[in-house]
Write a structure and sequence with these properties.
Oligomer: single chain
Strand order of the largest sheet: 1-2
Distance between the termini: 45 Å
Shape: globular
Structural class: mainly alpha
Order of helices and strands: HHEEHHHHHHHHHH
Largest sheet: 2 strands, antiparallel
Radius of gyration: 23 Å
Number of strands: 2
Length: 288
Amino acid sequence: MKKTAKWIEKAMNLLFLFCGLLTILFVIVITIFLIVSGIPAIKEIGIIDFLFGDTWASTAAEPSYGILPFILTSVYGTCGAIVIGVPVGLLCAVFLAKMAPKRVGNAVRNVVDLLAGIPSVVYGLVGMIIIVPWVRDLFNLPDGASLFSAIIVLAIMILSSVISVSETSIQAVPREYEEASLALGATKTETVFKVVVPAAKSGIVTAVVLGIGRAIGEAMAIMMVSGNVANMPKLFGSVRFLTTAVASEMSYSSGLQRQALFSIALVLFLFIMMINLALNVAIKKDKK
């Protein structure tokens, strides 16, 4: 029996190792594919013209492949979604973990889980029907499909990730921390926000990273509510994100245009990698 148990344990260890190495392999393959597919267009167009050009006209008689409007739109849209979605998600997570009655907490968790399972195209459809007309009427605009509408949709979409991961991190904080704070005379609210939340900071940052990844990588929903026009970003103007630039033109692209779309995907990939790296470095410095 002992020998059988040891063999099973060794087999499981090998299986876990294989899965871990397979994940790394997938990342390496994707990275190599994007580099090989994206570099030729950047070389032909010129890295300065490609990254800092403010005009995208891939189907014109004299095509232009400047993606600065896409980069700025993605940055503004992601930052706006984080500014709106993270505070709401964090406060909801605190409520679920420390303040909600059991029945209410279970009901809200079910809604959060449902929010995570809704397809992105449904978010886009609801945004088109409700948010876009609301923005148009509220701000007296000719068209409500804009960066602002996209920010609202993205903020709603990242809530599930932020709430779920933040709540798990808050609940993982040892109960002794909370009891010691209460014993010293702190109120429950002070204990939660000055002891528990700071102790769960690494998990909350992970939730923010997941939210950023969801926001910056979304295509279908924001394509339906942003106007999908390659303009320099304005809060109430039609815009196009990096993801929607690839999704909207890939089906009919060819030649240099297709290579340029792969280059956009490479920029997006590097952008997400840099964000993750920067946040991980910040977390490690804070721990030290």
